[in-house]
Write a structure and sequence with these properties.
about 75% helix; about 0% strand; mainly alpha
Length: about 180
């Protein structure tokens, strides 16, 4: 595949994923991983997970992982193609729908749609969490750490930053 063909493929795939990003761009991680790692073989599973982790650790929007994955696939042009593909349709659709919905916010159909999107968003985020945790869940300590983090986020108001710091310390000590 030529460089131009890779850029076009990456752009078009991100273009379609953009419309799936209901829970935010992070909800598209499973499908982007399937495309980039399993179908195209542009990155290894470890490189893909590392790209997402690096982008999530950096300050800024969670959308940054798209640029990092694009960069790792095809350099700066890949980052630009992936980001353009991810941003164009969702931005246009968001502008149109938000203007339309603002005028009809009390309509039964609009309220029903918003309520129905909550489980879809939750499902996409859970699939992303599973995909990112899967490589380390074979280790009992990592499995325990993930389970404890989920429980603490669910049942307490503890900041996720403390859980991230705990995971970083456990990783630095070689526990996970």
């Amino acid at each position: 595949m030529t460089h131009a063909a890779i850029l076009w493929d990456l752009f078009v795939h991100c273009l379609t994923l953009s419309l799936l990003a209901i829970g935010g761009a992070i909800a598209t991680v499973p499908d982007l991983q399937r495309h980039v790692v399993l179908e195209r073989g542009w990155l290894s599973a470890g490189d893909f997970t590392g790209s997402v982790a690096l982008a999530q650790a950096a300050p800024g929007p969670n959308l940054l992982f798209v640029a990092v994955v694009g960069y790792n696939v095809a350099g700066l042009a890949g980052a630009l193609a992936a980001m353009a593909g991810m941003l164009l349709p969702s931005t246009a659709l968001t502008l149109m729908v938000s203007r339309w919905g603002a005028k009809r916010r009390d309509a039964r159909g609009v309220r029903t749609f918003v309520s129905g999107m909550a489980p879809v968003t939750l499902g996409l985020i859970l699939a992303t969490g599973y995909l990112l945790a899967k490589p380390v869940l074979v280790q009992p300590a990592a499995f325990l750490l993930v389970g404890l983090s989920v429980l603490l986020c669910w049942r307490t108001k503890l900041s996720p930053l403390w859980l991230i710091a705990t995971g970083a310390v456990a990783g630095a000590l070689g526990l996970v």
